[in-house]
Amino acid sequence: MVIKVFLASSSGSTAIKKKQQDVVGFLEALKVDYTQLDIACNEENRMWMRQNVPVDKKPTNGIPLPPQIFNEDSYCGDYDTFFDAKEDNSVYAFLGLPPPPGSKEAEQAAKVLGVENGTPAEEPKADGSVDASAEVPVEERNGDAHGEEEQAADEEEVEGEGEGGEEEDVADEETAGDEALAEEEEEAVEETDEVTEQANAQEEDEQEEADEDREEEDLQSEEEEELRQLEDEEEEEEEEEEEDMEETQEEEAE
After folding, report:
1. Whether the Cβ atoms of residue 178 and residue 67 lie closer than 8 Å to each other
2. Residue 71 forms beta bridges with which residues?
3. Cβ-proximal residues to 81 (8 Å cutoff; 6+ apart), any chain
4. How does strand 34-38 pair with strand 3-7?
5. Where are the alpha helices (DSSP H) in 30-143?
6. pTM of the entire structure?
7. Measured between alpha carbons, how far is 1 from 132 in angstroms, rounded to an integer?
8. What secondary structure letter does DSSP report for 58?
């Protein structure tokens, strides 16, 4: 399985460049084999990326921005989903790859599997006794301290939600900025195409006018040539008539 990362090598957006560097740097840190595919210099890569990003994962303008990540032909996600997976220690699951043994993600997967299958019973100690704390409810063992821990956990959760909201706002602003940049790039391409079409149309008109002028010049040249030939013929006829008249006069004189 090959991980494909679609990038734009000549992007003018600082935010896009930073996101691309984050993805590539993290994959290299994990020693994950991947391939970079440039959409700025290769139109086929650009069209393939746009066609294979699911419709429900595309932004409102329908133009997905790099970086976009695939496992072979299977879509993994964009930078935001990659970032979420990194925060949750689930990058290998995000990439569709098995986590290496001993990694945090492998340990988390083992814990989840243990919870789903049921927690194993406590093993007895060497003397045959069982840890009594395992049978005593947490509330009874910890007393009021447990209530204080729950309160502190609730406060941390509220603070975390506040920070998460700020991160979401920043992400939304970056997404809006990227979408605006994409729209500007599309508009610039359309304007360039229009200018090119206008220039081509103007060149065609100028070429047609030049051809018409050339035809008129050729026609005028032909008419002038015919007129010149007629004049020459008339001059020859006049000369012949004058010669005939001279001969006639000489004969009459004799």
Report:
1. no
2. 3, 74
3. 94
4. parallel
5. 43-52, 79-87, 91-95, 104-117, 138-142
6. 0.46
7. 49
8. S
How many angstroms separate the CA atoms of 179 and 173, rounded?
Answer: 10
Count the Cβ atoms, other than its own, within 10 Å of residue 76: 20
pLDDT in tens, 202-239: 778 788 887 777 777 777 767 777 777 777 788 888 88
Separation of first and last alpha carbons in the chain: 122
- Token readout for 78 is 């964009």
pLDDT at 74: 96
DSSP symbol at 44: H
| Most confident residue range from 10-19, 149-158, 222-231 | 10-19
5: β partners:
36, 69
Alpha-carbon span 99 to 58, nearest angstrom? 28
- Cβ(37)–Cβ(45) under 8 Å? yes
Answer whether the bond into residue 99 is a cis peptide, omega within 30°: no
pLDDT bucket at 128, cuts 50 / 70 / 90: very low
- For 113-143, give one letter per residue: b (16+ CB within 10 A) or e: eeeeeeeeeeeeeeeeeeeeeeeeeeeeeee
Greater model confidence, 140 or 206 = 206
Structure tokens at 200: 């081509």
Orientation of helix 14-29 relative to helix 79-87, angle to 10°: 40
d(CA 190, CA 24): 32
Say if residues 91 and 82 touch (Cβ distance below 8 Å).
yes
- What is d(CA 79, CA 137) in angstroms, rounded to the nearest whole number? 44
